[in-house]
Structures
1.
Amino acid sequence: MLIKRPDPIPPREVTSEDLYKSRRRFLQQAGASMAILAGSALWPMGAARAGVRIGSPKHSRFSTDEDLTSREDVTTYNNYYEFGTSKSDPSQNAGQLPTDPWSVEIAGEVAKPGRLALEDLLRPQDFEERIYRHRCVEGWSMVIPWIGFPLASLVKRLEPTSQARYVEFTTLYDPKHMPGQRRDILDWPYVEGLRMDEATNPLAFMAVGLYGDPLPNQNGAPLRLVVPWKYGFKSIKSIVKIRLTREMPETTWHEAAPNEYGFYANVNPNVPHPRWSQARERRIGEFFKRDTLMFNGYGDQVAHMYKGMNLKRWF
Amino acid sequence: MRRIPVRTLSFLAGLLPLAVLVEATFRGTLGANPADALINQTGLWALRLLLITLAVTPLRRITGWRWPGKIRRQLGLFAFFYTVLHFAAYAVLDQSLDPGAIWADLWERPFITVGFAAMVGLAPLAATSTTAAMVRLGAWWPRLHRTVYLLGVLSVLHYYLLVKADIREPMIYALILGALLGLRLLPRPWLRRLSPLRRQRMGTPQPVPRR
C-alpha cells in the first residue's frame, strides 16, 4: 500500500509570499497592526491563510489507499453556503475571511468553560494525515487527504462532566466576510453535533489541513470537523464554538428540513433522501456512478454504535 | 446583401447551447463534476427554450411583429430536443441506462415523476408540429397544444423540487412563466398599448430627412 507522503511545508508557505517579498509593505502593515492592536485584538495579520503550521504529519492506519481526488477538485467544488450556494462560490468568495487570530469558545458541560486560542488548542496535538472517503448527501464523493488530530483527544482535554452526552459545534457568523450569511437560506450560524460516543470514536477527526497544507478557507479553515461515515454536512467548517450538552443539539439542516436531514445522517444506501436515492454516488473524477457503501465503508469502526437502532427512523 | 432568413438564424442559435456544452465537455472545462453539469445545463436550456416559446405569442401581441410567429414551431421543437437530451443525460450518466433504476426513480421521486410527465407531455406536441398534422387535427390542434401551459408549470415545478435550500433560481423561472401566462389573460387592446413601437407608428408621422 502506497500512500503519498505530503512534502514538509517549505518556508515560503509559512510566511505568505507577499509579506516575504515585499519588505516595504510588510513594514507598513506591521506599523498599521501595531497602531490597531492597541485598540483591537482582531486585526487580521496574514490575508487568507490560517496561522496553522502543519509540520510532517504521521500516517494513520485509518487511511484508505484509494486514488485521491485532485487538489483542484477538492478546493474548487465545495458546499459552504456561508460563501454562496453554488459549488464554485466558496473558492471564489472565501479568500478574504480572516482566520488568524482565531479562537474557539468552550462551553457547556466541561470542567473549565472559556475561550481557547487556536494555537493553544492545537499545541498539544500531534498531527496525522487521514485519507478519508467523503460522501455528500447530494450523491457525490471524494477521497481527501486531511491533516489534523482525533476529536476524541480534544474532547478528553476539555474534561467533560458526567452530564455531557452530546457535542455541539458552531461555525463562525461573519456576514461581512461570508456573503451567503446575508440571506436567510439557512438559520445562521451553522450548527452541527455528535453523540458523545460518536465524537470519541477514533474516526471522528478535527482537520486543520489537506494535501499537506493548511486548510484553504473554502474547505473550512482554520479548524473543521471530519466525520467520514456521515454525510458531508455533518462535517462542520470554521468552528468557533464547541459546547458539550445534555440534550441532542438542534442542527442546522435538520432544522431547515427535518424530514430530509436527520441528526445522525449516517451514510446509508438503503435509506433514500425523500427526493433522491442514496444507493449510488458519483466519485468526483469519474463519469458514472458507483454503489454507496453502508456507513461510507466505515462499518467495522462505527456500526457497533448503532446496534439495535432503527436506522430508517433515525436517519 | 441578401438577408438571412430568421428561421436559419434561430436554428443556429438553438444549436449554440449544445455546441458550447460539447466543446466544454471535450476541453474538460465543465468543472469537477461534468456529468452533473451536463444534466443540469441540458435541463436549464430545455426550460429556457420552453419559456422562450411561450413568449412568442405575448411578444407578437405587444409589438405587432410577425417574425416571432415564424420561429415558434422551431423553438418548441428545440425545447423538446433539449428535454430529451436532459433525460438521456440523466438516464446514461446518473442511472447507467439501468431500466429498473429509472423505473424505480420514476415512482419514488416526485421531481423525477413531474419532469418525466413534462417530457411525455411535450412528445405529442412535437409529433403534431407539422403543417399536415395541423390540418388533420383541425380544431383539436389548438386544444392539444394548449397543454403546453401545464407542461411549463410542470417543468418549473420539477426544477423547484430538486433544489436543496436556495430556491432563488427556480423562483425566477416561476415568475417569468407566471408573467408569460398572465399576459395571455389580459385583453389584447391592453397589450397593444404596452408597445412603444405601436405608439410611435400611430403617432405623428416622422419627417422624411432631406438630402
2.
Amino acid sequence: MSLQVTKKGDVVVIEVDGQLIVGNRQELKQKVLDEAEGGARKVLIDFAKAGYIDSSGLGVLVSLAKRMRELGGDLRLANLNDDLQTLFELTKLDSLFQISDTRERALESF
Amino acid sequence: MASNAALDIRIPSDVQEIEGIVAQVVGRCRECSFDGRQLSLNVPVALTEALSNAILRGNGDNSSKHVRIRADVSELRIVMEVEDEGDGFDLDACTTDPSTPENLEREDGRGLFLMRSLMDRVERFRGDGNIVRLTLHRR
C-alpha cells in the first residue's frame, strides 16, 4: 500500500493505493494523526486506487473518525468500489461515515 | 484434501506474510475461473481475517511460531485451512455483530463476522494445532 497526500483548500486528501490491511494499517493511522497534529481538521480518504480492506483497516478508519471528531474535525470517505461498499454495508459502517461517489463531491461536502 | 490446484505452505507468524499468501490463493482461484467478486472480495478478505487471527491471536503475535495454510481449489469450490499453534476458540461465542449500537464504533470485533459473511461455511476444530476451515463454492 502507498499513500499520497495532497491538500485542497483546508481539506487534507489521502489517497490509498493498494490493500489496507493488518500489516499496513498503522501507516494510514500515523499519516492522519500527523496531519491532525499539524492542524488539519478536515480529512478525506480517497479509495479510488484501493484494493480490499480487512477488519483491521475498517477499525483504523473508525478510530481515526472518532479522533477527528474529538478534535472538532471530520474524516470523510470517497470512491468506494462495489467490494468496499459491500464491506461497509455488511458492517453498517456506511451509517457511521459520510461517503461520496467522487472526490469532488466529497470536497464540496465539507 | 484431494486437489485440482492445492497449496500447502508453512509461514512464519508475521502479518507481513499475509498479502503474499492471499495473492497466491487468489491466483489459484483465478485459474479455476472463480467469479470476479469472489476473487476481489470474498476470498482475499476472509483469508486475510483467518491469517490475521491465527498470527495475532492464535500465535499471540510470536514470530517464532508458524502458521500452516492449505488451500484446495477446484472448479466447484475452494476449501482453505489455516492452522496456528494456539489453543483454539469458540467460533460462535467469539463472533459478535459489529452493527449493533454498542459495537458500531469499536475498532475491533469485525474479523469473524466478515469471515462468516463472505464464506459459505466456516468451521473451527483441532488437528495438530488449531484449525479454521473456510469453504466457498464457485459461482
